[in-house]
Amino acid sequence: MIIENTGLNGMTSDLAQLDESSEKLGFVRWQWEYFRATYDLKLEDRINLEDYYLRFNVRAIEGKLESSHAVLQVESVYIGRATFPHGLDYESPVPQPILNAATLRLQELKKLLA
User: Fold this and answer.
1) Residue 8: strand pairing partners
2) Closest C-alpha among 77, 3, 70, 8 to residue 33
């Protein structure tokens, strides 16, 4: 599920600030290469015993990700249910408490990057 109207799409930040800000909120930069990266936040639904991942993609618009001074732009924000053995299902409905937690984290991230 793509999360619209987060205010994050198109925001820019240098890699050092983005890493620091996202880590404060529990995001981890998992997949990355020289020009793009994915940040993930695990959200646990303890009622249904399922895990969801809030994810956002960034792309380098100046420099490469090997430099803390690289400037990155947020491209998209989405959430999916974890599937076994690995992967995300973006088509499944997301419980409202998980969406609320995701929205709160995204608002906090937006404030830290502003």
Assistant:
1) none
2) 70
**Sign of the dihedral defined by the CA atoms of residues 64, 18, 30, 2, in that order:** negative
| Closest to 109 (Cα-Cα) out of 19, 22, 4 | 22
Tell the residue number behind the tokens 């994810």, with chain if given.
55
CATH numeric code, 11-113: 3.30.310.100
Digit-coded pLDDT (tens) for 18-53? 999 999 999 999 888 989 999 999 999 999 899 999
Q: How far apart are CA 94 and CA 71, in angstroms?
A: 32
Helix (H) or strand (E) holding 110: helix 96-113
The whole-angstrom separation of Cα 4 and Cα 63 is: 28
- 81: tokens are 């249910």
Residues 6+ apart with CB under 8 A from 53: 40, 41, 42, 43, 79, 80, 82, 88
Radius of gyration of the chain (CA): 14
Q: What single letter denotes the amino acid at residue 10?
A: G
Q: Give me the mean pLDDT over the 55-70 stretch.
A: 93
